[in-house]
Amino acid sequence: MRCLVVVVCVAVVVVSAVVTSAVPSTPDNLRPLINHQVWEVSGADGGGVVMGLAQSGVVDILGHTADSHTLRVAPTHATLVKAALRAAGLTHTITVHDLAAFLQKEEHLVHKRSTRAQVCTPDNCREPYADHYMKFDEMESYLRYIAKSPRTKVRSIGKSAEGRDIWLVHIKPIRGRAGKARVGEGKIKRKAMWIEGGIHAREWISSATAFHLIHNFLKQPSPTFDVYIVPMANPDGYVYTWTNDRLWRKNRGKTEGSCAGVDLNRNWDAHWGVGASGNPCSEVYMGSRAFSEPETRALKKEMESLNRNKKFDLVLSLHSYGQVILYPYGWTRTPAPDQPEMQRVGDIFAKAIQQKSGESYKAVNSAAGFYLASGATDDWAKEALGTRHVYTVELRDKGRYGFTLPADQIEPTAMEIWNALDAVLAVL
Ligand code: 0X9
Ligand code: ZN
Questions:
Q1: How would you label 263-285 residue by residue, b for 16+ Cβ within 10 Å and e otherwise?
Q2: pLDDT of 134-173, one tens digit each?
Q3: Predicted pLDDT of residue 341
Q4: With contact defined as beta carbons under 8 Å apart, do 270 and 384 qualify?
Q5: Long-range contacts of 103-106, Cβ-Cβ distance < 8 Å, separation of 24 or more
Q6: Which of 102, 146, 155, 242 lies at a C-alpha separation of 20 to 30 Å from 71?
Q7: Which of the two residues, 277 and 183, has the higher pLDDT score?
Q8: Atom 15, ligand 1: which residue's CA is nearest?
């Protein structure tokens, strides 16, 4: 800059500094969301128009109730979506005009950290953060720490599409304290439970809760079950939400088209293809074949092998959001074996949460109370493993913040699930 008058030059520098600090640039992981809108669609969608738009990759369903949908609409698709909704007799209002700007404003809530917050370093992470979401590296650092305990076994059950480890944590009951069930000829078996977290990348509260469950199991004298937890079932997707796109849902596998990623909760061999999408650009893309993805293959292989010896008594898949406890089937409205029993225990789950935190959760059948979708962990566990109690838990909240749940809700969410789990394990 050539300054003819020194005063003018100083003024220019000051003004440009103010402008730069007043308009912070969009973080990289919010850039894909610039000018994306949130639409609240009202009316019962009997014809499945909204699901059709989602399966074509035109909208992203963020949430729904029986007679409304919350959609993310990219600017390039707005005209098409508007016409399709109008033709179906559905009305909409736009509640967010620029998701990137909206989320950037709320960043302080999502990344809240109390003054006494601990910080994990690569070789020291003694507990999961209670009021801050952890990066993938920090999660791995915590796993390295607990791997030193004689009560846990931490091992990689396979690699993701981009080569990250998929970690399994096994927390062993102390001999003699294990809850036991009789099988066959009076043989005694230790009870076992499987918990999967983070299969959908943007549902950060899922992995955060899984880590807090691990931590709580390790804090108590000894669990009475064999506990198997995969806290980060989709590590590549999770990293991608931090670096590139906060609302990424799928894994980062290559597809036959130009869009990346497969919805891992549509990729299991559980009536694969029914109520899912064959379009790689859809958020609910089911993949080129059942178990096309290394993440679902690793989970399946491990679950099959453990179930062969230990037969799971409970399988939980942690998701967000909506505060519902879903039980199979999700691919058909035909009731699954043990439907009344799953409802009974689901109600115990919901009641225990209510008693702990006052939050209301509802136990419902997945296909009837939510929507039809195949290829999910829960239906596969029910059908292929024959697990009696299987649930997909949609954690907090009910839509106020959705996937970008403020970090000060990590601890209360995890604690309500922890307490409910205690009540559920007591009745299995
Ligand atoms: O659609 C899903 O994969 C789950 N909901 S989410 O909003 N977290 O994406 C629900 C899956 C329920 N189970 C089946 N449909 N089988
Ligand atoms: Zn999910």
A1: bbbbbbbbbbbebbbebbebbbb
A2: 999 999 999 999 999 999 999 999 999 999 999 999 998 8
A3: 98
A4: yes
A5: 103/30, 103/33, 103/246, 103/404, 104/24, 104/26, 104/27, 104/30, 106/401, 106/404, 106/406
A6: 242
A7: 277
A8: 330
Query: How far is 311 from 190, CA to CA, in rounded Å?
Result: 9
Place of tokens 């806290």: 231
> Among all residues, which ones are annotated catalytic?
394
Place of tokens 């058909």: 332
Q: Where are the beta strands (DSSP E) in 97-219?
A: 152-159, 165-171, 180-183, 187-190, 192-197
- pLDDT band of residue 9 (cuts 50, 70, 90) is very low
Q: Token pair for residue 218?
A: 């390790």
pLDDT confidence band for 111 (50 / 70 / 90): confident
The pLDDT assigned to 175 comes to 62
Using most ligand atoms within 8 A of CB, pick from 199, 200, 248 the residue to mutate for ligand 1.
Answer: 200
Domains of the chain: 31-113 (3.30.70.340), 136-425 (3.40.630.10)
